[in-house]
Amino acid sequence: MLPHQTDISVVMATFNGERYLRQQLDSILLQTVSPKEIIIVDDGSTDTTLAILKEYATDDRFRLLVNDYNVGYIRSFEKGMLQATCPYIALSDQDDIWLPHKLETLASNIEDHIAVYSDSMLVDKNGMSLNKKMSDLKNQLTYNNCLMYTIGAWAPGHAMLFRKALVDQCKPFPALVTHDFWLGFVASCNGGIFYVNEVLVHYRQHASNAIGANTQQSKKQKPTRAEKILTAQRRMQLLYEKCPEGLTEQKEVLRLLSETYQRSDLKSRWKRMICFFRYRNIFLAYKKKSVLMQILFCVKMFFKIDA
């Protein structure tokens, strides 16, 4: 059943987004199914972003929240989601362009699912198509097993619609992973996140992306190997702790991986590699890897965890 237009909250986080903000806000206002509220959390912008937002806030659907200091996009999105009053939430980046039927299409497909998401078309800084979709980079698919999130996933927040109940199951949002990864993982522990095979967003790629599609080499400082290993260990522990006890097999797999990620002895390395071999089709489902490359990936897990 298609939710009524008053059932949807749009949540956006902004930070110095003056260049592209108007185009995205206009695309939200032009939706064929209009949201009841548009919650925008500004994270300390120093350009004209706030002035632009105040112009749009004359529409009584807008709720503008301004952080006292910069807290980052994860905390900003979390703040906005917790403030949402509707049973359905759609997240919005400040620099994308939504196709007019995005909310309507996602809402018509959510049915009994806790969350849905769609494909996106990559566009350049001027909004021109790069002739590449998110699904061309990695497999986009329905995540109906939380083990599909073990090493990563490809269900971006900008393309999601989910039930407000999911936020309650996610809070507090950990700083270790992105907010949309956490939403997707928790959704995959509670029935799954359904994939709608249709482009509904023009996903803008430019030098100031908080998170991009990794189509170009990042100029950000790379973490050291020691930092990457520590992050991988903490992340696997996080997934294990969050996985419900009722998912017996998944819980055991994540327990084994969490334990072997903490150790470097040969027995632990062997157990980890064998686990990856056994579940490789699930762990690597989102990656566009041949059978040979899947096998090589599993072998690599004997030697390193910062993959």
UniProtKB/TrEMBL annotation:
InterPro entries in UniProt: Glyco_trans_2-like, Nucleotide-diphossugar_trans
Record keywords, A-Z: Transferase
One MF term in the entry's GO annotations: hexosyltransferase activity
Domain Glycosyltransferase 2-like: 9-166
Top-level taxon of the source organism: Bacteria
One Pfam entry name: Glycos_transf_2
Name of the protein in its database record: Glycosyltransferase involved in cell wall biosynthesis
